[in-house]
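Weekend entry, working from home. Most of the wet-lab plans are on hold until the incubator is repaired, so I used the time to fold the two sequences that have been sitting in the queue since the last round of cloning. Logging both here for the record. First:
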Amino acid sequence: MIWFLYLPFVLFLIGVYGIFFSRKNIIIVIMSIELLLLACNINFLLYSLLWWDLVGQIFTLIILTVAASESAIGLAILVVFYRLQGYIAVDSIQNIKG
């Protein structure tokens, strides 16, 4: 069972790297957040299978639903921002208050 925990750990590290070390591209930040959620989902599924409990699988479905809606809303905001500004940069997005 311990061998299966390496995959979520590696995915989590890639997600953290994408968020903290490549902040210039907002698409990479959104994809890194999705990788973090995917690592959590894999952990929930593995422990659900280990303990023969369906609660982990239910949490996985809920997290997948939230992740899909988060990425859809985030990408829609980015498309609108690109249409208004003509470019997408994290520094210029942080200046918008409202």
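Second, folded right after the first finished:
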Amino acid sequence: MAATAAAPLWARGPASYPPPDKELMAPVPGGRAYVRINGRVDGPRPPLVMIHGGPGGTHAGFLNALALADERAVILYDQLDSGRSDHPNNPANWTVERFTEEVDSVRRAVGVPRWHVLGQSWGGTVALEYGARRPPQLAALILASPLVSTRSWIADANALRAQLPSDVQATLRQCDPPAPITPACEKATDVFYANFLHRDPATAAMKDYSRLHGGAGFNPKLYQAMWGSSEFVATGTLKDYDGEPLLAKLDGPRTLFIDGQYDEARPTTLGGFAARVPGADFAVVPGAGHSIFSDRPEEALGILRPWLREQDRA
């Protein structure tokens, strides 16, 4: 079944973002995670928690989803060693298992008995692992542009690389590990990102928020340790990750797969994963790259809002 978009909410996001109604440092395995909440966690609808990508990213990519706080609490947090959370920078913490355990630690700290869980990109990996456990506190699961398996991710990245100009392709091939990262590599990678990651530049509001509230921001050490230095070759601890068997453990009627039209996680691949989960919904955000909530927030939230309402009634 395919989810459909409702009327647009915002065009590229608001002029500014509301301050959190509540902030806390939640105890999680290995340290404390920064959490911000907008809306009432004890309201009539289950809250939505959103798990950011990376590894090593921050919650800032979800700011446009704060619009949903008019009808349910929206909970954003930075994973350990990212953003405004503690930074012990202990590689022993950098495991799929620990990041999955972190999710329920945040839930307990916030005091939520039941919630919807959305994970995007690497956060989709964490959400997949969490959802496959079928915790009773999980109302519904949204896998947004998720890393389901490294082999499928690399296959998608290489298929998309083949669509770029021939000179950019040649440069990127020369930059595959173990080759060193050069300015030419960074320039060619930026071309890939402009097509498939961020298709629109960050808004002034997003830049202002990141500057004033971003904390330590992105953690490249964590990213390189778990993934590597290239979009096209995984050399970190996730190089052999395979979450595809977990698809069979998901609660299909309560699962939504969603990605962008030009996403790094290609719709043809993600749609195939969704088809393996009986009863799951699948939606594509038109015009968006991987950063669906930044590129096309009105379309992304236009899909998510009615789908969550349906899950509230289920």
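Plan for Monday: verify the second prediction. Residues 297-313 form the longest helix (17 residues).
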